[in-house]
Structures are given as C-alpha cells and as structure tokens.
Specification:
Layout lengths: L4 E5 L9 H12 L3 H7 L5 E7 L1 H14 L4 E4 L3 H6 L9 H4 L19 E5 L5 E5 L9 E15 L2 H13 L4 H25 L3 E13 L2 E13 L1
Parallel strand pairs: 5-7
Antiparallel strand pairs: 1-2, 1-3, 4-5, 6-8, 7-8
Helix pairs in contact: 1-3
Length: 231
Amino acid sequence: MNIRYTVIFEGRIMPGKSAGMVKDRLKAALKTDERGIAKLFAGNPVAVRKNTDLATAEKYKQVFANAGAFCDIHKDGAPEAQAAVPTSVESETVAGTCNESRSPAPPPQPPALPIKVHHITTSDGGKMIITNIETVPGKTVAEHFGLVSGSTIRAKHIGRDFMASLKNLVGGELKGYTQLLQESRQQAMDRMVEEARLMGANAIVNVRFSTSSVAQGAAELYAYGTAIRVD
C-alpha cells in the first residue's frame, strides 16, 4: 500500500529565532509573497503539502527547520491529521500560495558525513543512536517524535585571535579555532541528545549541523535531527 502524508505548519518558531527572520527565510525558500507568508502565520494549522510521499514530506520539513520553524508530518487518514487540518484549508496550502510548478528545493546542506552510526551515552546512563541517514540500519522505527535540536553561541578568544593573526602571515591550521568548533559541535549535539531523551527517543536520524553569525565576533553552531524510537 502506498502510504501518503500531509505536512502541517502551525506557526511554531524555534526557541531563540525571531519571527521576522523566520518569515524572511520562508519567503525566500518557498518563493512566495507577503500574502502567502501571512496565511502561514494566521494562527491556524496550514497544510503545507498534502498527499505526498515521506521523502518529499521530510524535504518540506527540512526547509522549515532551516528557516527556524517547526512543522509536523502526519500520515493521511490518521485521526490526528484529520483533526489538525480543516477541510477548508486547501486554499491555504503552499501549493496555493507558491505555485506547484516551482516547488521549493531545500537549501544547500553542509557536506554529509560518511554513513556511520554512533552510540552516545545520555545523562541517565542510557544509549542514544546518532546517524546522518534517514534510518538506523538493522532497526525498525517504532515511533516518530519529530525535530530535536541543540545550539551554542561562542565568541572568539583574544589569545586565539592573536595566534590566528600570526597564522595569516605564515599560513597553517588555526588550531585554536579548530578546537573551538569541535567543542561547540559537541555541546550542541549533547543538548540535542538531551532533548531527544526527554521525549522518550532512543535514536536521532538525519543529523545535520549549521552555523550562523549572531554578533560581531560570535557565532551560533546548531545541531538538529529527527528523534525516533527504534526496536
């Protein structure tokens, strides 16, 4: 049986993200106008995409995640999907606000890591499976919890900055910054894992990292993925 899915957006924005920034990013990603964005944030559930396959639904969800917003994927015919989306919302789908012939393509992603499954010890002594692919090899997905994330904002260190200025003269690796990024990635991942643990998940798939500048000399490193429970 060919299972179909609906992507639903309820206007939820990720912690630490401003509404203006999220709207601007979605406007660019979905190639829509102010009227289309206004419909998305009108306060009612909006079917971003209906009757689609899971891979396409995940792509739409990723577009919203990259913009700093949450959306959910519901299996068509499930009671929660029918309750979440009014029958009159069809005119408010992205297909209506952003022409179907120019469906949004996901923004370029950072280069994917080699396919590998990691096991991380959680704060309660359990194990969390981490992978950058859509499934856990050899495991069956029992429950889907949705997007989880973790972030950290780090500023440059005056000592590292001084050494970096010397390296600019002679060349070579900026080891101070390399260490800073490694620490930031680990902290962002730890926070993402803790969020998934509190949901009851034991695995996170589709793990990705992104960075953005938040102030002069300071940057955010953001880790995100999809929390699931596998058997």
